[in-house]
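Throughout our pipeline, every protein is held as a single compact record rather than as scattered files. Nothing more is needed to write down the fold, since each code stands for a local backbone conformation. For reference, a complete record is included directly beneath this paragraph.
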Amino acid sequence: MTGRRLITPCAAVVAAAVAAAASAQAATTLRMHTFIPPVANPAKTFLIPWAKKIEKDSGGQLKVQPFWAMQLGGKAPQLLDQVRDGVVDIVWALPGFTPGRMPRTEPFELPFVHRTAYSSTMALQDYQAKHLAPDLKGYHPLLVHVHAGFFFQTKDPVTKMSDLKGKKIRAASRLGVALLNAMGATGIGLPLPQIPSALSKGVIDGVTLPYEIAPAVKTPELVSHFSILAGPQPRLGTNVFTFLMNPTSYGKLSKDLQKVIDANSGGNIAEMAGRNWDAIEEPGRKVVESHKKNKFHTIAPAEVAKMKAAGKTVVDNWLAQMKKQNIDGATMLADARALIEKYSK
């Protein structure tokens, strides 16, 4: 009897250890790769909480291991290939880093189409169902969204369009570069991680960015002037971001774990993401304001009108490019504008 009483607790401990080991072995780790550092607002407020929620909702059966600032190698424009080819399981990437890679997302990046992160992100969910299947072929999309929109952050003040003449300004996408060129600047396409070096070495005179990412790339220290536009659309435009999973990685998951991913994807998280990107502008601006040297400008309506006229040439050129590719750009642009209007009410 005594022997049995001693053996039973020991057996229970062993069984628990075996069960724990089996559970640990059963857990699936998904590798998530992106170009931003973990201190950036999108990481702190979206990617890290998302990863934690996946683990919680799956009861620990799914773990998302983040790799920041291209830790796994390659350059930011290669992220789309890395996830498509199964080098990594998940990426948060900017299609604009690879010009022309996802042309059907570009109506949201055309000048003065965008209004807020919320309205454009919600619009993209409806738009995706109708238009984005060709661009997203080879991926399992988790979310397509935008940030709050970009404006000028420069070494010298920009208060009118002529102030851009001769200035070398960074943009994230080809349409951002085209807009800068149309306004008289020299647009330079650069991935985010290259901004601090390019500014400090004088390769560029400024950037187009939102406030939320400014601290992560040191623009509060490296430039002195921040210029938004007068009127209901104070930003020049926005950039489309893709949160993508390798379809084979998704397909290998059990149905229950796929449901966890689905519950934290697309329309289920779009409202949260849109409101998040609008909200994180304020803390970003506060960091910029904490540097006393920095000055803030609002570009007057008459100058905004000149910028919009310059932007129209970018839209016209884009429509012509889409026509050459047998893509109905006019319908896509009309749908993007109508959907943004719908979610702006």
In short: The two ends are 76 Å apart (CA to CA).
